[in-house]
Amino acid sequence: MEASGWASQALKDAKPDVFWWDRPDAPPVAAPLHESVNADLTVIGGGFTGLWAAIQALEEQPGLTVVVLEAERCGFGASSRNGGFCDSSLTHGLENGLSHWPDDLSTLVRMGRENLDAIDVAIDQHGIVADYHRAAEIDVATEPWHLESLLESHTTHAQYDFAVELLDGDSMRSRVHSPTYLGGLLRRSDMALVDPGRLSWGLRRAAESLGATIFEHTPARAISVNGTKVDVTTPGGTVRSERVLMATNAYPGPVRRPRRYVIPVYDHVLMTEPLSSEQMSSIGWNERDGIGDASNQFHYYRLTEDDRILWGGWDATYHFNNGLDPRHDQQDTTHGVLAKHFFETFPQLEGLRFTHRWGGPIATTTQFTATWGTTHKGRLTWVAGYTGLGVAASRFGARVGLDLAFGATTERTELEMVRKKPFPFPPEPLRWAGVQITRKAIQTSDSRDGKRGLWLRLLDRFGVGFDS
Ligand SMILES: Cc1cc2nc3c(=O)[nH]c(=O)nc-3n(C[C@H](O)[C@H](O)[C@H](O)COP(=O)(O)OP(=O)(O)OC[C@H]3O[C@@H](n4cnc5c(N)ncnc54)[C@H](O)[C@@H]3O)c2cc1C
Question: What residue numbers bound the domain in which 456 lies?
């Protein structure tokens, strides 16, 4: 049987559910808001950004009254669905940072490292058990043209003091046994891996232990200014507060402004059953690095604590008019292609089954990084748009959001990335058409040894793009 045959067998019984949340240790549901309350700070959205905002606000200003409103359960969005790659980069990778903010890049790299160090400390201080550990990451070359881009990337990373090493084909294949590997760029620094489901549960507990009040199943529906205060209306009651931080990322939330700059893009993931010790020996991977391949349309994959392989990425789908729907989580074609690629990469795992398949919305901007803004006379601050690298960056996004919400001028708020908005997406139907043309152009570029056609070169010229 070929890879596609094994893939459909392996997917047959996969549960259409997020593995990281399909566990018995979820915290109890927090009661929804059913009265009107007052607060100093209202946070809308209980993903990583919203929870880090509550935690950092309370650590800096103990005694502050902080209310978190979450439409579903804390972590329901991208925060529980991701690959758990917790990268220090605030700029969706060093190269993307260099292309947009060359003057600020050293500062951004330093801030990213400080942010990751602060996550280490917070995990420890709050006793969060989420399989969080520093890990190396490898960009693997699976096509000859990747080797040149890894060489360039090595030079760039070395300039910014990352601990990087180029691996030739033999070294790469002896580290992780795949016949598709032609080489790799190993980065030993500035990266961690985490179980994102347990991280979202742990951050929720930490926020509560510091004094935040969390309301789940409480969607914020409307915002209005009331004198010096802002009212956030939910189905069961209103929260009146001095300031609001909206952290709904790919989800629209009650304020429309971010929709010009941020669009939801679905990314999909598979999780295998635990590998036996023989299967583990057949793939090597003793260092348990996080791995991504070097194509524009890339896969990311890693081992879990119990020796499963999480395998995700490759295709990123946009649905007309910023479409969001739980049905988009399950895409037979995308999951099928992902499964086929899995067995092409690890043919020795023939017979291994996938236990879970899911997807979720990534919020992307034309610069692939978070963007911030304020509305309602400066009383509401929003942050969104980390693209596929928000696990660590969301803590920084929240930190900047708090600076803006409390009117503080800091080194962070002076960054060009914070001060200037990305190029907006055009309105529909141009938005949908533009994304489809760009996706097609990216696929073509990958099939032409990475050569960028006219459309991608035009976008590069304007400093805009589409990624996951
Ligand atoms: C499949 C996938 C894989 C990914 N892999 C990685 C990875 O390996 N590494 C990495 O760094 N990043 C990854 N990301 C991106 C990363 O997960 C996100 O950038 C990050 O989790 C964003 O956190 P957030 O809190 O801003 O958004 P979210 O986690 O989406 O949280 C937003 C919250 O707001 C709530 N909400 C929405 N509307 C309302 C409302 N009106 N009222 C109240 N609440 C509301 C939602 O229910 C949700 O809980 C991935 C994302 C996906 C989808």
Answer: 430-462
